[in-house]
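Project standup — Tuesday

K.O.: blocked on the structure for the chain from last sprint. Re-posting the sequence here as requested.
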Amino acid sequence: MRTIGIIIKEERIAKNLKQSELATMVGVTQDSISLWEKDKRLPATQHIIDLCKIFNISADYLLGLVEEQAKK
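H.V.: unblocked you, prediction finished:
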């Protein structure tokens, strides 16, 4: 099963972003991104919204509720 951390990491890499760059875009520290990607912490609701906008994905996809992201 793909976790939120795995999806965040895959989407970040697909966008060719470093953890520090994504952290700046979301308004958190690089350590936060690292903890999210390792599934040691979960992003707050606002950060989930921000990640969905940055990655152009649905919250359902980010949260692992659907297997595939519908192409926009």
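K.O.: great, moving the ticket to review. Helices lie at 4-14, 19-26, 30-37, 45-55, 59-62. Residues 4-14 form the longest helix (11 residues).
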